[in-house]
Amino acid sequence: MQDFSSAQPVNRPQHGGNIAWAASLAGCSPLDILDFSASINPLGPPPSAIAAIQANWDSLTHYPDPRYLDLRKVLAAHHQIDPAWVLPGNGSAELLTWASRELADLPSTALITPAFGDYFRALKSFGATVHPCPIALEYPQGVALSASQPLPSSLSWLPPAAGLLLNNPHNPTGAMFSVEAIRPLLEQFLLVVIDEAFMDFVLPHQQQSLMALITQYPNLVILRSLTKFYSLPGLRLGYAIAHPDRLQRWQEWRDPWSVNVLAEAAAIAVLQDRAFQQQTYDWLEHTRSPFYQQLANISGLQPFPGAANYFLIQSDYPVLQLQQELLQQHQVLIRDCTSFTELGDRYFRIAIRTPLENDRLLKGLTQTLSTLN
Ligand SMILES: Cc1ncc(COP(=O)(O)O)c(C=O)c1O
């Protein structure tokens, strides 16, 4: 009997979306893997992004504008703020690094756990002291799909000089925290960094973004990503919204051309692509609830009712074994949660994809679990 708990411990990826690793386990080409492990919009990238990239090949012979004036103008218009409050980056991961440099100057940083692994990378690289605040992980029976979840009560016991790094909607649980619940934390913490990488997947009227509060709180930083909603993780594009003095400081810390010319052109195009945005809302609105229900109907699996484009699922079966069987028998990749230390081998996360692709996962899960019973 193979010991799956220690399968490939050295090579097991820390992040979703590693299809080269999955293909080596499945014994197929990376292109044959159906990837549920990275929470990327299956409808993209939008044709407007590809057209913008193709139209801008000639720009490759020039450096990008280090002030990113055009892109900042479009991002600012998108959020109805002043361009001085926007800084584009090489994915939101790059901006997380600079936010972490500032958090590391404070005595401690509160972090809701389980937490996206890159937070630890970024905070550790500047020697930040992390104060974990665990989120409730009981299976929330009967809660509506996009209901606001309570924040960990341990947050209110932290000293006022602390920083806070909060993910909304939260990865991996999909929990969404309300603006009302977060607002008092802006008074309590010296620096509040809100990672809203998945907020675009929430219907506009249900979103709980702090964007409207940005000019009232100089201690607030919002991080956003364009890689997930527009399906461009390979291009790398994110942005920070924060006080101009803070963003100016980050610009002085980093290399002057973090965002390449093709990413800049694609971002300008997709932010104005209302048709793609609407298409994505329509797909998610029609797909999320039935898919959740189908997953909940599989015996031994308990999905969390997430507000974003993914579900965390508690499993009665060992997940590394399930993951391996799904790869080898169905070329389907799910995200094991072993990199989230609080979760271990009884949880996995899956993206919501197209109905046909979701069916392939459901079939694979049903078949595989029947053999594990
Ligand atoms: C919660 C969260 N924040 C940020 C990121 C980084 O995204 P980007 O591609 O914009 O760097 C990820 C990527 O998986 C994520 O899950």
Offer a quick outline of the entry.
This protein has 373 residues and is an alpha/beta fold.
Report the oligomer: single chain
Could you describe the largest sheet, including whether it forms a barrel? 7 strands, mixed
CATH superfamily of the largest domain: Type I PLP-dependent aspartate aminotransferase-like (Major domain)
Count of alpha and pi helical runs: 11
Helix content: 25-40%
User: Which kinds of small molecule does this entry bind, naming each only once?
Assistant: pyridoxal-5'-phosphate
CATH architecture assignment name of the largest domain: 3-Layer(aba) Sandwich
Computed CA radius of gyration, to the nearest angstrom = 20 Å
- Strands side by side in the biggest sheet: 2-8-7-6-5-3-4
Name of the CATH first level of the largest domain: Alpha Beta
| Helix and strand sequence | HEHHEHEHEEHEEEHHHEEHEEEH
> What is the CA-CA span between the terminal residues?
16 Å
Shape: globular
Number of strands: 13
Report the CATH topology name of the largest domain.
Answer: Aspartate Aminotransferase, domain 2
- Return the average pLDDT rounded to an integer: 93
Number of domain units: 2
Proportion of beta-strand residues = 15-25%
Low-confidence stretches: 1-10
Structural class: alpha/beta
